[in-house]
Known about the structure:
Blueprint: E1 24-29, E2 33-38, E3 61-67, E4 72-77, E5 81-86, E6 100-101, E7 111-116, E8 121-126, E9 130-135, E10 149-150, E11 161-167, E12 172-177, E13 182-186, E14 200-201, E15 211-217
Antiparallel strand pairs: 1-2, 1-3, 2-6, 4-5, 4-7, 5-10, 8-9, 8-11, 9-14, 12-13, 12-15
Amino acid sequence: LLPLEDGERINAVLPVKDYAEDSYVFMATSGGTVKKTSLNQFSRPRSSGIIAIDLRGDDKLVDVAITDGEAEILLVASHGKSIRFRESDVRPMGRGAAGVRGIKLPEGHEVIALALVDEGLILTATENGYGKRTPVEDFPVQGRGGQGVIAIQTTKRNGRTVGMSLVGDEDEVMLISSNGTLVRTGVSEISVMGRNTQGVRLIRVESGQRLVGLARIESIEDD
Length: 223
């Protein structure tokens, strides 16, 4: 087990078969920083853990993926904007480096998720329980470090964006509310809509509560 200090928590678990030199650990932080480091730099762990990224100030690690050096990255932030860029825009760095800017954020907002672009649709969800699926093709490839484009409208009805995942028609998602309620739903039941829209209700949240996240799960048989 990884020993954690006060205020620390585990944000990602990645299955690794071998530490190939042409594979990378790609990281995104809440402050919009991204970084990639060769996977083989993590091949000799210590019982106390090893540094993966140098976090500055109150920045925190949000999401991590293993890449092949040729992926396309999608970041989504709490103000409803996203940016899609080529992984090759980010040079490999050592474990102790801080990374580079992935997306420019307005004050008070943060990156909430990272996805590797592939076939499927982008599912976005907001804190008031609304969301939608949007075709990957609707998200243009841009240069790293810009302001991005709208992924979902963060209106008064919707609230801030709290979750994003690349999904297929056969997938299911688990929606998690701040009072601990879990709702499982089939992805195929969620409307497909363009980027610059509000979406539809995914989950009804009680007064004073909010949706805090979502998790994609493989479709499983009913009991």
